[in-house]
């Protein structure tokens, strides 16, 4: 018997089950009613509040003030190189163009990992957001490379109200065919040394989340 | 930890616990419990209890239908382009990883914190074969440098002070390391960054495996988990078969329980959801994905209907935080990767009674762990069952207790079933104790009773209630 | 009809807490309860069971069933731990199909720990006790988590005239007794006890009150060893004071 057959047989013996044994339905008490959402504005406030508690910087930015906001961020974080998702959403906001105008060197999100690691800033959209926990969910697709939110020192995520979901369930249902996604809840952190919370270990040291209004 | 123990002597281990250990441990656990309480309060007790019940039922359902869900998981991982391996024991698992690594000429591996790979001693095996393995969770990185095992499931370096870590970094990394968590963290970041970029293998475990879609869920805070499972071209996950869950609704519930119970976070900083290797070159991620499904004693644990609930565990570590025994001894006293109440249950069953019969007794059965467990594992009941196995044996294992003790106990039970002998005994004790008695106390008793009096005196034996009650009754009847 | 209490005096109670047992009789009689002491009782069997000798627990448990099975009325014990054992483990020791099973099913619902008996059966909170002292309360693990009595013992204490109940830091943390645990790992038991003593001493109380003989033996012994003036007392003895 190979390992696979042996393990499955051992499992079945231990459980007194056979291969064709029926699978009981999962009981109703193992399911939890989803959280009831508030209106979109309150939900966005909650999201921002939770991210703020974790050390993220949140804000609502008017469309015509994006440049000013980016300029401030670039200065604050001394951004020299940046990379961003290739999505229509970010293109429409003109982020790449503004960054170039601000003298930031743009690196293709398809560049190799070492080039990505040299970026100071990575700009992404947000596919789903969960206000209760302050969580952003980012999918991984050809125009949304994983490394953009991972390797740069600073992560800027642009979130819109359409991304808000009251609970995880609906988002899971919508993306379950994907091969990868990530939840990001605040900047990277550790408490491994004397339980002192330290922000910015391996992932982003700073997280900015903006809603463009 | 690279050594799998052959005998664990808890009492000796306790005697070797350095005096600062309980202090550091308690500082950490009380902080965790405080933040946990705060986030549980936000959820509200009623909903929290409903979540715990749901968590329990989900995990029990997964466990009692494990063959079904494992088969489904395998099918889905394959369909996503991943390769599934099955390992009966530690040796098989290590062999699989080693062969995969050798075939691809792997020289450097980076690892996400994983209890399963601690359990099988994977690092040791890879290093012996010339493959460098680096732990990348900060706590694991520190204990790897220190050459010791984890002292807590969630914060493995909880026993070390910032001064100790600074000294360790200075010595082992050859850098000037000040005793400042922020600076130490920065040193580790710089050091590990290069390793992430140059590694040709990323090794992880998983918190959950979702059978419905073949997805691994990995919960981390530092971002090292994302690095290890995104940057190297090869990702191997070694996961205990007990980690399988049916579907996404289950994950939804469990992700509400795990971070809150573990670190008091509403959600950990990064939770990765991985189904097979990358689908497009553009998105990035590993080209190859392998899943090693590890048994290593789990199917044996499943045979006992009571103790099998050990496998409901989601490794949050809250049972350690609330355990008064753990808080006083720290993780190393348990002699294996798993410590605290979960260690007392799991290590005992994984390693067997010959090695670990001490552990189920390393509990005062106070029950605090069961009160906090997010998936409602009846921990004291399982420990009692394991004590029984250790002493009298059961259908899983023969007893490890010596026959002479067995005989002694038989004699003891006799006096409890013969009331005249029992009552005679209670009166005799009052006379026997006389030479040792001082002011109503017995300060020093001979072995083995000195195991009590070494800590505190015993009140003097003084059974007189029966006589008092009978006399009173007689007087009243008259 | 008068309420009848069949006293289950327990092995630790009998050997080390005679005064508590007498106080139990005094309080119950004061409340009009008729007390009986079934002859032939020994121990519930828990010490064997918790040491892993589950077959060793059978004989004492059978003795308990034999003695108390013949009685009528309620069975009342001054120990949460023993009641927890009878209530939650006798069905496991004597499953369906064993000759004792029916007796167990009959016995368990009428077996009560003292606080439970006062509050839930007699529906009494104020038993007319007077105890003009500053006290603090340690929650015994099996009383608390085994029987689920979290607020009840404190409710009884608060109803005592003149008594001032001060909080105990880590009230619900085990004192380190743990039955067989205390002699298997005496070093750990000792440090747990010492933590408990530190908290008791910091509370500023004159008395530490608990509802289980095991914890009281441990805590009283610890206080004795460090020469503390604080006294450990069973809850029953506080309720008996007038």
Task: Write up this protein.
The complex is a heterotrimer of chains A (213), B (478) and C (242). Chain A is of the alpha/beta class and 213 residues long. Chain A has one domain: Rossmann fold. Chain A has seven helices and eleven strands. In chain A, the strands form three sheets. Chain A has a six-stranded parallel sheet. A three-stranded antiparallel sheet of chain A has the order 5-6-8. The longest helix of chain A has 14 residues, at 40-53. Chain B is of the alpha/beta class and 478 residues long. Among the domains of chain B are: 10-160 and 200-299, NagB/RpiA/CoA transferase-like (Rossmann fold, 3-Layer(aba) Sandwich); 405-477, no CATH class. Helices cover 52% and strands 11% of the residues of chain B. Chain B has helices at 10-15, 20-43, 45-64, 66-79, 90-103, 115-120, 122-128, 138-146, 162-173, 181-198, 224-230, 248-263, 298-301, 318-322, 324-329, 340-351, 353-356, 368-372, 379-391, 403-417, 419-432, 450-453, 465-477; strands at residues 83-87, 108-111, 132-135, 201-204, 208-210, 215-220, 234-240, 244-245, 270-274, 288-294, 441-442, 458-459. Chain B has a six-stranded parallel sheet with strand order 1-10-7-4-2-3, with helices on both faces. In chain B, strand 5 and strand 6 (215-220) form a beta hairpin. The longest helix of chain B has 24 residues, at 20-43. Chain B is elongated, with a radius of gyration of 26 Å. Chain C has 242 residues and is of the alpha/beta class. Chain C has 13 helices and eight strands. In chain C, the strands form two sheets. A four-stranded parallel sheet of chain C has the order 2-1-3-4, with helices on both faces. Chain C has a four-stranded parallel sheet with strand order 6-5-7-8, with helices on both faces. In chain C, strand 7, helix 12 (213-225) and strand 8 (231-234) form a beta-alpha-beta unit. In chain C, helix 11 packs across helix 12. The mean pLDDT of chain C is 96. Chains in contact: A-B, B-C. At the A-B interface, helix 1, helix 6, helix 7, strand 8 and strand 9 of A face helix 2, helix 3, helix 4, strand 1 and helix 8 of B. Strand 8 of chain A pairs antiparallel with strand 9 (270-274) of chain B.
């Amino acid at each position: 018997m190979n390992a696979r057959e042996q393990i499955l047989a051992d499992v079945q013996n231990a459980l007194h089950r056979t291969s064709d044994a029926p699978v009981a339905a999962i009981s109703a008490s193992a399911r939890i009613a989803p959280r009831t959402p508030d209106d979109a504005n309150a939900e966005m406030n909650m999201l921002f509040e939770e991210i703020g508690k974790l050390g993220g910087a949140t804000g609502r930015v008017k469309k015509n003030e994006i440049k000013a906001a980016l300029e401030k961020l670039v200065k604050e974080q001394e951004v020299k190189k940046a990379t961003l998702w290739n999505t229509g959403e970010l293109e429409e906001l003109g982020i790449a163009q503004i960054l170039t105008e601000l003298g930031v060197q743009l690196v293709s999100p398809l560049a190799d990992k070492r080039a990505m690691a040299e970026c100071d800033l990575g700009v992404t959209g947000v596919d789903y957001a969960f206000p209760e926990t302050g969580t952003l969910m980012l999918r991984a697709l050809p125009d949304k490379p994983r490394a953009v939110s991972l390797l740069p020192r600073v992560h800027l995520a642009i979130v819109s109200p359409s991304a808000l979901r009251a609970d995880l369930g609906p988002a899971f249902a919508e993306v379950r065919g994907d091969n990868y996604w990530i939840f990001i809840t605040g900047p990277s952190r550790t408490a491994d040394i004397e339980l002192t919370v330290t922000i910015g270990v391996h992932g982003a040291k700073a997280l900015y989340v903006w809603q463009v209004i | 930890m690279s050594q799998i123990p052959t005998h664990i002597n808890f009492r000796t281990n306790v005697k070797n616990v350095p005096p600062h250990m309980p202090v550091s441990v308690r500082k950490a656990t009380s902080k965790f419990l405080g933040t946990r309480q705060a986030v549980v309060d936000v959820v509200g007790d009623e909903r929290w209890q409903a979540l715990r019940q749901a968590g329990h039922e989900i995990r029990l359902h997964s466990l009692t239908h494990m063959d079904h869900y494992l088969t489904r998981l395998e099918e889905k991982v394959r369909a996503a382009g991943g390769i599934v391996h099955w390992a009966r024991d530690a040796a098989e698992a290590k062999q699989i990883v080693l062969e995969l690594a050798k075939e691809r000429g792997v020289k450097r591996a980076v690892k996400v914190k994983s209890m399963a790979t601690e359990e099988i001693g994977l690092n040791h095996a890879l290093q012996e074969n010339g493959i460098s393995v680096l732990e990348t969770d900060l706590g694991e990185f520190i204990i790897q440098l220190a050459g010791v095992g984890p002292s807590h499931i969630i914060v493995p370096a909880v026993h070390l002070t910032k001064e100790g870590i600074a000294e360790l970094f200075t010595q082992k990394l050859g850098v000037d390391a000040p005793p400042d968590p922020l600076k130490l963290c920065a040193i580790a970041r710089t050091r590990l960054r290069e390793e992430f970029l140059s590694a040709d293998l990323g090794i992880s475990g998983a918190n959950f495996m979702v059978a419905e879609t073949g997805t691994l869920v990995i919960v981390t805070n530092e971002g090292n988990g994302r690095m290890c499972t995104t940057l190297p071209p090869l990702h191997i996950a070694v996961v205990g078969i007990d980690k399988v869950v049916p579907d996404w609704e289950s994950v939804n519930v469990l992700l509400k329980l795990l971070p809150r119970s573990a670190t008091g976070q509403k959600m950990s900083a990064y939770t990765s959801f991985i189904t097979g290797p990358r689908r497009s070159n553009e998105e990035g991620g590993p080209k190859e994905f392998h899943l090693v499904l590890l048994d290593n004693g789990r199917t044996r644990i499943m045979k006992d209907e009571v103790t099998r609930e050990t496998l409901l565990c989601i490794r949050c570590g809250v049972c350690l935080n609330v355990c008064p025994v753990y808080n006083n001894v720290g993780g190393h006293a348990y002699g294996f990767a798993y410590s605290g109440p979960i260690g007392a249950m799991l290590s005992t069953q994984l390693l067997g009674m010959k090695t670990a019969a001490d552990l189920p007794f390393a509990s005062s059965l106070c029950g605090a762990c069961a009160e906090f467990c997010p998936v409602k594992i009846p921990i004291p009941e399982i420990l009692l069952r394991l004590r029984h196995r250790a002493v009298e044996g059961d259908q899983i294992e023969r007893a490890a207790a010596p026959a002479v003790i067995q005989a002694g106990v038989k004699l003891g039970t006799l006096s409890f079933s013969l009331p005249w002998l029992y009552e005679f005994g209670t009166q005799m004790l009052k006379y026997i104790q006389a030479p040792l008695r001082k002011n109503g106390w017995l300060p020093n008793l001979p072995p083995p009773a000195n195991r009590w009096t070494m800590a505190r005196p015993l009140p003097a034996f003084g059974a007189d209630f029966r006589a008092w009650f009978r006399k009173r009754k007689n007087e009243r009847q008259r | 009809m008068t309420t009848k209490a069949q006293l289950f005096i327990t092995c630790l109670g009998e050997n080390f807490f005679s005064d508590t047992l007498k106080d139990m009789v005094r309080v119950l009689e004061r409340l009009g309860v008729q007390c009986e002491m079934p002859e032939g009782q020994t121990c519930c069997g828990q010490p064997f069971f918790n040491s892993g000798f589950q077959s060793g627990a059978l004989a004492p448990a059978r003795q308990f069933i034999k003695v108390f099975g013949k009685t009528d009325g309620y069975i009342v014990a001054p120990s949460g731990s023993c009641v927890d054992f009878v209530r939650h483990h006798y069905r496991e020791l004597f499953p369906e199909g064993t000759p004792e099973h029916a007796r167990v099913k009959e016995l368990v619902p009428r077996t009560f720990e003292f606080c439970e008996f006062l509050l839930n059966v007699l529906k009494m909170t104020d038993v007319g006790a007077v105890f003009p002292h500053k006290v603090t309360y340690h929650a015994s693990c099996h009383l608390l988590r085994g029987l689920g009595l979290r607020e009840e013992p404190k409710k009884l204490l608060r109803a005592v005239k003149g008594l001032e109940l001060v909080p105990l830091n880590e009230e619900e943390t085990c004192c380190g007794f743990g039955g067989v645990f205390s002699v298997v790992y005496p070093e750990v038991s000792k440090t747990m006890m010492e933590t408990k003593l530190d908290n008791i001493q910091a509370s500023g109380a004159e008395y530490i009150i608990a509802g289980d003989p095991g914890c009281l033996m441990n805590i009283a012994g610890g206080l004795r060893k460090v020469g503390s003036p604080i006294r450990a007392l069973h809850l029953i003895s506080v309720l008996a004071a007038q």
